[in-house]
Write a structure and sequence with these properties.
This is Putative quercetin 2,3-dioxygenase PA1210. InterPro entries: Pirin, Pirin_N_dom, RmlC-like_jellyroll, RmlC_Cupin_sf. Belongs to the pirin family. By secondary structure, this protein is of the alpha+beta class. The protein folds into 2 domains: 6-50; 61-373, Jelly Rolls (Sandwich). It is built from 4 helices and 23 strands. It has helices at 6-21, 23-50, 242-247, 264-269, and strands at 61-64, 96-100, 106-109, 113-117, 135-143, 147-154, 158-165, 168-172, 188-190, 194-199, 204-210, 217-224, 234-239, 250-255, 278-280, 284-291, 296-300, 310-317, 326-329, 338-340, 344-351, 355-360, 366-373. β3 (106-109) and β4 form a beta hairpin. α1 (6-21) crosses α2. The longest helix has 28 residues, at 23-50. The radius of gyration is 29 Å and the shape is globular.
Length: 374
Amino acid sequence: MRLLSPWSAVLVIFLAIIISTTNYGHTLLDKVTESVASYKSFETTAATTTSTISVSSAFGGSSITPTSTLTSATSPNMSTVSKASNTMSKALRHAKITPHRSSARGHSDHGWLNTYHSFSFADWYNPKFSHFGSLRVLNEDRVKANSGFPTHPHRDFEIFSYILSGELTHRDSMLSKGNEGGESEKFKQMKRGDVQFTTGGTGIAHSEFNEHPSETVHFLQIWAIPWKKGLPPAYHTQAFSEEAKRQAFLPILSPLKAGEDATLAEEKEAVPAIPGTIPIHADFVMGAGIIEPGKIFDWRVGAKVTKGTKRKVYIHVTMTKGGRSKIRLDGREDDDAILGEGDGVFIDNLASDDILNVESIGTAEAEIVVLDTA
């Protein structure tokens, strides 16, 4: 092949300069520039839509709102992060998600009591739903006015009631009856947002009545298996902020800080692992949240206080909005990860510090409880 002479090479360079200064030359350069800009734009968009950002609160939760821009957190328990639900990454691919549909629960309507059992209870038994970790009972109850559970004994269970609406009056063998219609140290009259907690231990008798003249009380009753038997009986009643539950998952229960070898003095002090919560005698954490449609809350598995690395989480969607509440777990599109009111879900193969996100996708806010156990 014959090489170009020096003069021919000069001519080629001269022609190239002429072309680059013509409209055609400018068009070519513009196309190249446009292509580079388009590529950079695609690269930026892809990085934005495929990444996942989770900012956790001090207690292991955060609130995430899908938006088009990244904004700073508005409170210690709330973070707003750009994340479209249809591109949310499945952060917990290792987790096993098994739904427990409302229709699969035990159900009894006694007239004065309309109750649903997520786990085997009373006359309803299903070997598939005997317990989940230390979680033993989750009943969703509605008790009519001037009705309730008369005095009955308990032993060696941690029992707590989470009030959704109405009023519930608690008495136990450590108290005596007080003046009806009021509140005193003799009994506890609870309303929405209150949690009543009893350690059955060596034995305690209690009653729970709806003493309102006309309104039905709606509440969850939950039992957990303690880390050892023969504990001293105890009770706690505490109110939890509605507003806080709308910002992020709010911790309700956490393990007794002194642990299973606590002294009697430490039992009386009843200091929880998470400040502001009720202490429970189990490797067990409970959280609650009220999630508006389009919002996402994060739950940090183990809530930074549990000892074990292997964890299980049960989530329950309360029946409070006439079927209009719905949630999606972990950004998944499959039916097993979509829950409606009354549904629960077993989430297994988890580890402490995993982040589980819960998105409200219904037409009404979803009030849910998270039960995190070893």
